[in-house]
Model the fold of this input.
Amino acid sequence: MKKTIVAATVALSAAGFLGVWLYEPGPLGTETVAVAAAPSSSTSDGGASEGAERTIDGSVESNRYGTVQVRLVISPEDKISEVRLLQRPTSGRGVAAIPILQEETLTAQSADIDTVSGATSTSESYVKSLQAALDAR
Done:
């Protein structure tokens, strides 16, 4: 009888440990970020107006941790001057990855950036949305 109780306790403890070890937090939801209207000199026409700052929205990309959508602010010199997120994960490792991805985008001025370790799904969704915005430029 004691051997059965000990064996059951060890088995349940191992199963509990394995469950905790493999646990990855999932999304609680996706945050949609309200963005203030752009100044009147800006345009979102993808470049029909030269010499003006413009905004371009990337595609909406979903993964199991949330949804990502990038909005680029393009300077009159055709450089990425700002990266905003219209939609972003609100929980998990992807939350901390977003500022890193934004900084890398501004440095690289392209979608050729590294994924953030531990936030691969969010990084890949970010890059897809970013590339769609760049293609629309």
Observations:
- Residues 34-48 have pLDDT under 50 and may be disordered.
- Strands lie at 30-32, 54-57, 61-63, 66-74, 80-89.
